[in-house]
Amino acid sequence: MSLFSAGETPLILLALAAMLLLGLEAWRRAAARARAQQGEIEVLQARLETLRDEKWAIAEREERYRDLVRAQGDIILRKDLEGRLTYVNDVFCETFGLKRPDVIGWPFLPELPEGQRPRTLTNFAGLATPPYRLRYDECAITTRGPRWFAWEEFAIRDEDGKLVEIQAVARDVTDRKETEERLAEALAQAKDANRAKSLFLATMSHEIRTPMNGVIGMTKLLLDTRLDPAQRSYAEAVQASGEALLNIINDILDYSKIEAGKITLDETSFDPRAVLESVAELLAPRAFDKHLDIVTEISPSVPRLLLGDEARIRQILLNLAGNAIKFTVEGGVALRLLRKDGSAGRGSSGRVELLLEVEDTGIGMDEHARAHIFDEFAQADQSHARRFEGTGLGLAITRRLVTAMGGSIEVESEEGRGSIFRACLPLRLALGETDEPAPAPLSGLSVLILNDRPLVGAALSRAASAAGAETHLAADREAVVRALSSSSYDVFICPLDGDAIDGAALAAEARHLSPGTGTLMLLRPQDRARLEELTQGDNAPFDGYLVRPVRAASLIARLTALRARGCMPDAGTPATQDHQDYDDAIVEGDRTPALPAADAAALGRLRILVAEDNEINALLTRTLLEHTGHEVRLARNGGEAVTHLEGDTEEEVDLVLMDLHMPGMDGFEATARIRSLVTSHAHLPVIALTANAMADDRQACLDAGMDDYLSKPVSAEALAETLARWVGRRSPHGAPHRPGDGQAGEKANHA
């Protein structure tokens, strides 16, 4: 029936009320539903009540939304696709001093500071693709003056996904922008200050190293002359003070480079065992002067060749071991090379976690000192600051180097009981290197070791055991006698300088007790004067010797030779002979046996041109070279060096030592001129000899065409080593030309 039939006035009134309450369209929908259901007035009334509730709910939600928008501190606006505003909130009006009726329906562009380009109102390209948002910062003129706003625009789409409007929200970020500008300005100032500091350090390094080169170098020459005891004591004090000052300068320069982020890491193939042993050998004289033991221990699982920065790893070991010696009064220091990730043969990824461990029996640290030991300028204990000198930068530099390599470093220490520093470095196996266990060349060999110095005895025992030998430690003379009387041993190792034990007498007694046992003497380099007496002749107590600190390869070589009762190993083990040569060179007094070419006889008589403007350094360099039999020609600047070479024949100069900073023509320009000369000088080795000590200086020299780099102060050993590397470049007078030496030397130098 019809909803509007006669006699149904309440229904008509209800319909009018519905139209007023809900609107005409809502009434039509309700009436249509009622007709479809053939319902009565109750049906329509219920439907109207439902629609009323829905409309009130919508109105309530809209009011909450308006309250939320009004409470926002951000600008909110909407605009159509022509850029005309369709809605702005109160914050917009307050910010720009505008009234809502004046802006609705009009395009809006805020007034911008002078020089700033406005954004396009209808630039919707960024809204057409996901994430359908645009974000940008813009400065605009407001009632408060210029303010920065962070704008975010996003698309509003209809049911069909068509873009119909743009909504934008802007937040005042002026405080953030001003903070960013202050930070950027502070960063720029810091960079300027850092550049100034680097320039200052480089300049001061040069100015300090130039006279220091003269002081240290001339003092060494003075010590080579005849001096009475008092004079020698004074000269040694000058030398020690100069070297201490040099160490301080090196620490400061290293820390400065690391702090400035200028530290660069190389990745070349190197032997970690050789690095560890060379560090121990370098520090051994310092340890022996303090009557300390220094030993090395290398795990068999450590690969022979790894990829990493050999120089920086050596520096880490030098810092840790040098500190250990400095803070140890009695006992000794152990340098260990281990593998954190287990034994050999397990690594299939080609990566190795190398563990560098340095243990000492020194003063140790309490909990507070341990917490700050890696801080800059920190000492192990401030109460020891005057007792143990140093900058407090060594361990800070070490930590930063380890971190730069992706590793970690820790310390285990107890006050009065020594310390253990452990640095773990993630490295890769060198190309072609296998990760397999090392062979056991001493398998079946029995070794007795006098263990009166536990650090030394334990290290020797572990090294021999790792190579397959069966070892036994004897604490004193009585234990040695009991062992030799009850068992048979192939070799007995006895230190010459044992505590309260005459090593030579005990070795002679061992010979008597066990005639078939070979005897090896442990000696320090300074004990070499007694070598002939103790190892040669029918009644000599020792069959051979080992130089402390003992290399693992040297130990294997000597034990293998003694097992053959004095016969050298067969030709299948050339490394054995090399390490015997090392020990032989040490006891002969050569502290750089790995560089036999440094010997003057091997080098021949070179003609060397030295370009140096400082008279003292020129005298020092000339004296060092002439003492080793070379002929020296001096040039006071780069121009004189070039002039000299322009008039020379090919045979007259074998090598040039070039200072960098000289009046007139500096070393860089002189090198470029030398390289542009005729072919006879095209490959003349030019070696920088300069007080500049920054890493960039070395690279600058190589980029300028120089072949090598020596930083002042220059030692006689470093000079001889460098000459040995480059002597093959030219035929020295009095020595034959050796083809290929120069190329090999160049590779070794750059490595």
Task: Describe the structure in your own words.
- With 751 residues, this protein is α/β, with parallel strands linked by helices.
- The strands form four sheets. Strands 6, 7, 8, 9, 10, 11 and 12 form a seven-stranded mixed beta sheet that branches.
- It starts with 8 loop residues before the first helix and ends with a helix.
- The chain contains 24 helices and 22 strands.
- Helix 1 (9-22) packs parallel to helix 3, helix 20 packs parallel to helix 21 and helix 23 (716-726) crosses helix 24 (741-750).
What's the gist of this structure?
This protein has 5 domains: 9-70, no CATH class; 73-172, PAS domain (Beta-Lactamase), CATH 3.30.450; 268-427, Histidine kinase-like ATPase, C-terminal domain (Heat Shock Protein 90), CATH 3.30.565.10; 446-594, Rossmann fold; 597-750, 3-Layer(aba) Sandwich (Rossmann fold), CATH 3.40.50.2300.
CATH class assignment of the largest domain:
Alpha Beta
- How many helices does DSSP assign? 24
**Class per helix and strand makeup:** alpha/beta
CATH topology group of the largest domain: Heat Shock Protein 90
Using only C-alpha atoms, the radius of gyration works out to 42 Å
User: What would you give as the CATH superfamily of the largest domain?
Assistant: Histidine kinase-like ATPase, C-terminal domain
The count of domains is 5
Measured by DSSP, the beta-strand proportion falls in: 15-25%
Ranges where pLDDT stays below 50 over 5 or more residues in a row are 1-9, 566-582, 584-601, 731-751
The general outline is elongated
Distance between the termini: 105 Å
**How many strands, what sense, and barrel or not for the largest sheet?**
7 strands, mixed
Overall mean pLDDT: 77
Architecture (CATH level 2) name of the largest domain = 2-Layer Sandwich
Question: What is the tally of beta strands?
Answer: 22
Helix content: 40-55%
